[in-house]
Amino acid sequence: MHASVGDQLVQHGRVVGQHDKVGEIVEVMGREGNPPYRVRFQDGHEGVCSPGPDTEIRHRETSGR
């Protein structure tokens, strides 16, 4: 899993009815885009995450094409 600052980290709900938790990656602490990541979630909470199999990275769109 590789990410950059500004990408979104999405933790999918594990049980029926549980919503996805979405946050912005504010720091990549691993080498070459690898975890762990410091993530700021929509509720303002920040935490260090090492994503598991229920997580996806949504890469930010880059302009300059």
Short description:
The protein has 65 residues and is mainly β. It contains no helices and five strands. It has one domain.
Q: What layout of secondary structure does this protein have?
A:
Layout: E1 8-11, E2 21-28, E3 37-41, E4 46-49, E5 55-58
Antiparallel strand pairs: 1-2, 1-5, 2-3, 3-4
- Tally of separate domains: 1
User: Percent range for helical residues?
Assistant: under 10%
Tell how many strands the DSSP assignment holds.
5
Mean pLDDT: 90
State the end-to-end CA separation.
25 Å
Which parts are unreliable, with pLDDT below 50 for 5 consecutive residues or more? none
For the largest sheet, list the strands in their spatial order: 4-3-2-1-5
- Major sheet summary line: 5 strands, antiparallel
Indicate the structural class.
Answer: mainly beta
Order of helices and strands: EEEEE
**What is the rounded Rg?**
12 Å
Shape: globular
Tally of DSSP helical segments: 0
* Strand percentage: 35-45%
Can you characterise this structure?
With 65 residues, the protein is mostly beta strands. It has one domain. 0% of the residues lie in helices and 38% in strands. It is built from no helices and 5 strands. Strands 4-3-2-1-5 form a 5-stranded antiparallel beta sheet, with no helix packed on it. It is globular and about 35 Å long. The relative contact order is 0.33.
